[in-house]
Design brief:
By secondary structure, the chain is an alpha+beta fold. The chain has 9 helices and 20 strands. It comes from Sparus aurata (Gilthead sea bream).
C-alpha cells in the first residue's frame, strides 16, 4: 500500500504527551506530519493518561529549571490559543531533611534561579499548611509558581491543534517495522508510509521499536500504583482551600520521593504516589501485582497526613520508563541521523511536553537545538559502558 498520501516530511510514532507535542510543533513548522498510535485514542495503557500532573521549577539540576521558564510560557500560549484551561497554580511544598543533600540542592536551585519561593520552618509551618505534620529535622520550601496540569485535557488539546494545522493522526495502528534509509519506511498493522525523518516517542515500548534500528537503550519499565486517599473531612486537602501539591524528598519510610496533589479531580480524594514501582512488561502491565509501594505510602499517610484515611480508596495504574540517571533521552539515532528518539522520561516528563516537542522537532529538522542537550544524549550510556570495561 503505497501512495502519495503515504509520503510525509515526518512520521512521529507514539501519541503520548511527547509524540503529540512533537507532531504539533512539526505541523506548526508547515511539515507534512503523520502521528501513529497503536491504541484507539484516548487510552490508559502508557504513561500520559490520567487527569493531573505536577508542574514545577523545583529541581536539583539547573537545566530542568531553565527549560521550565520557556515551558511555562508555552503552556500559557496553548491555553490562550485554545481557550482551554490546562494549568492551575497551587504551589509545590517540598519537604526534606534540613541538611540532606537532595533537599538542600533543590532549595539552592530555586534560590539561584530566583524562583519565587517561601521557606517554612517548624514555627510557621502549620499556619501555612494545615493537616500536614512536618517531621522533626525536616524543613520545607514552597515553589510558588508550581501547580497542576490537566493531563488528559492537555493531550487532547495538543492533538486537536495538530489536526487543525492539517496533521494526520492514525490510531489503532501499531508500527511493526522501521526500515532506515535516506527515506525511512514505516510499516504498521494497516499500511506502509515513508518519510524524510521519523521521531520515536513510544514511551514504555521504546526499546521494542528501536530493535528495528539495531539500537537498545538502558531503559526500565516500572508499574506505578496511582493511589487516591479519602479525606476524613471532605475538602480539607482541596485545591480550593489552597492545599498545594507536595513532594517529600526522603523520609522515615524511604529515600525515594513521595508526592501528592490536592483533592480536585475526584471529590474528597487526594492523589499520593511513590516515585518508584516494580518492573513490568508494558503489554502485561496488570500481571504486575506488587503493592510494596502502597505499604510505604500507608506508613507515610499515617505519619504525616492525619486528615486522610490511611487506606487507598482508588488505585489506578501508570507506567514509568526510567533511565539509569533518571534524565531523559533526546537525541538522534547514533547510526541514522534522520531517526530521532525521545524516551526515558523517568516519571517526570509531562510538564516538559511543549519544550520536548519543540526540541525533538528541531532535531528532526536537523537544526541546532534551542537548549544544550548533552545531559540527554545517548552517548552518556556508551561512555559509562566503556569506562566500566
Ligand atoms: C503515575 C505517574 C505520575 C506522573 N507524574 C508526573 C508529574 O506529576 N509531572 C510530570 O511532569 N510527569 C509525571 N509523570 C511522567 C509523565 O507522565 C511521563 O514522563 C510522560 O507521560 C511520558 O510520555 P511519553 O509520550 O514518553 O510516553 P507514553 O505516554 O507512554 O506515550 C507513548 C505512546 O507510544 C505508543 N506506542 C508505543 N509503541 C507503539 C507502536 N509500535 N506503534 C504505535 N504506537 C506505539 C503508546 O501506545 C503510547 O501511546 C508521571 C507518570 C506516571 C506514570
Ligand atoms: O514530575 C513530578 O513533578 C512528579 C513529582 C516528583 C516525582 C515525579 N513526578
Amino acid at each position: 500500500m503505497m501512495s502519495a498520501e503515504g509520503e510525509y516530511d515526518c512520521i512521529v510514532i507514539g501519541a503520548g504527551v511527547q509524540g503529540s507535542f512533537t507532531a504539533y510543533q512539526l505541523a506548526k513548522r508547515n511539515k507534512k506530519t503523520l502521528l501513529l498510535e497503536q491504541f484507539i485514542l484516548p487510552h490508559t495503557r502508557g504513561s500520559s493518561h490520567g487527569q493531573t500532573r505536577i508542574i514545577r521549577r523545583a529541581y536539583d539540576e539547573d537545566f530542568y529549571t531553565h527549560m521550565m521558564g520557556e515551558c511555562f510560557e508555552l503552556w500559557a500560549q496553548l491555553e490562550r490559543e485554545t481557550g482551554v484551561k490546562l494549568y492551575r497554580q497551587t504551589g509545590l511544598l517540598v519537604m526534606g531533611p534540613e541538611n540532606s543533600q537532595y533537599y538542600t540542592t533543590v532549595k539552592n536551585t530555586l534560590l539561584r534561579n530566583k524562583v519565587p519561593l517561601m521557606v517554612l520552618t517548624h514555627e510557621n509551618f502549620s499556619q501555612h499548611i494545615p493537616h500536614v505534620k512536618l517531621a522533626q529535622g525536616d524543613e520545607a520550601v514552597v515553589d510558588i509558581t508550581a501547580g497542576v496540569l490537566y493531563a488528559d485535557r492537555a493531550l487532547k488539546t495538543a492533538q486537536g491543534q495538530f489536526q487543525k494545522l492539517g496533521g494526520v493522526i492514525r490510531d489503532n495502528e501499531m508500527v511493526t517495522d522501521i526500515k532506515p534509509g535516506p527515506v525511512v519506511t514505516v510499516s504498521t498493522s494497516a499500511g506502509v508510509y515513508r518519510a524524510k525523518s521519523v521521531v520515536i516517542t513510544a514511551g514504555p515500548w521504546a526499546n521494542k521499536l528501536l530493535s528495528h534500528t539495531g539500537l537498545q537503550l538502558p531503559l526500565e519499565v516500572l508499574k506505578i500504583n496511582v493511589c487516591y486517599w479519602r479525606e476524613k473531612v471532605q475538602g480539607s486537602y482541596n485545591v480550593k482551600q489552597r492545599f498545594p501539591c507536595f513532594l517529600l524528598t526522603e523520609g522515615e519510610e524511604s529515600n525515594e520521593h513521595i508526592y501528592g496533589l490536592p483533592s480536585n479531580e475526584y471529590p474528597g480524594l487526594v492523589k499520593i504516589c511513590y516515585h518508584m514501582g516494580s518492573v513490568a512488561d508494558p503489554d502485561q502491565r496488570d500481571m504486575q501485582k506488587d503493592k510494596s509501594d502502597i505499604d510505604i505510602l500507608q506508613r507515610f499517610v499515617k505519619r504525616c497526613l492525619p486528615g486522610l484515611v490511611p487506606e487507598p480508596a482508588v488505585v489506578e495504574s501508570c507506567l514509568y520508563t526510567i533511565t539509569p540517571d533518571r534524565h531523559f533521552v533526546m537525541d538522534t539515532h547514533p547510526t541514522y541521523s534522520n531517526i530521532v528518539i525521545g524516551a526515558g522520561f523517568s516519571g517526570h516528563g509531562f510538564k516538559f511536553g511543549p519544550i520536548i516537542g519543540k526540541l525533538l522537532c528541531e532535531l528532526s529538522l536537523g537544526e541546532m537545538p534551542s537548549y544544550d542537550l548533552s545531559p540527554f544524549r545517548i552517548r552518556r550510556f556508551l561512555e559509562k559502558t566503556k569506562s566500566a570495561l
